[in-house]
Amino acid sequence: MPAQLNHRETRALFLALADEELPTEKARAVHQHLDGCGECQQGWQQYSSTVQRLRGVEREKAPPALASLVMTRVKRQRRFGLRGLHRMHLTHRFPVEVLIPLLLAAAVAAFVMMSS
Ligand SMILES: [Zn+2]
Q1: Were 21 and a residue from 16, 36, 44, 91 both cysteine, which residue would form a disulfide, CB within 3.0 to 4.6 Å?
Q2: Where are the domains of the chain?
Q3: How far apart are CA 69 and CA 1, in angstroms?
């Protein structure tokens, strides 16, 4: 029987769950929480559909328009050092494929912070 997760723990695991990187037992614990918690369930659905959309984009080699849209969003969020990410992109010309997982992680962090 996996340990019960609270809201915060569940949400913190969304990224790993979406990447299918969670050990089975952990994934089961997350789903168990989601089954009994409408709020987290809704959050997870939003999160996973965002991830899927970004994955689709990744496959199509991230059109520049979307990349810059993401960057504009990032620029607007000054917390969590997201500005640093943007600067990294500009200065070091990191490819978007490298930045997307970082942006996702930052998005999850923002989501977790905002909703608790
Ligand atoms: Zn919950």
Answers
A1: 16
A2: 7-114
A3: 43
Q: How far is the CA of 56 from the centre of ligand 1 (A)?
A: 28
Asked if 58 and 100 count as a contact pair (C-beta separation under 8 A), the reply is: yes
CB 46 within 8 A of CB 78: no
Residue 29's CB: how many other CB atoms inside 10 A?
20
10 C-alpha vs ligand 1 centroid, how far in Å?
Answer: 7
Residues with CB under 5 A from ligand 1 (ion): 7, 37, 40
Distance in Å, CA 58 to ligand 1 centroid: 30
The string of pLDDT tens digits covering residues 50-102 is 887 777 765 666 556 666 666 666 555 544 455 565 565 566 565 666 667 77
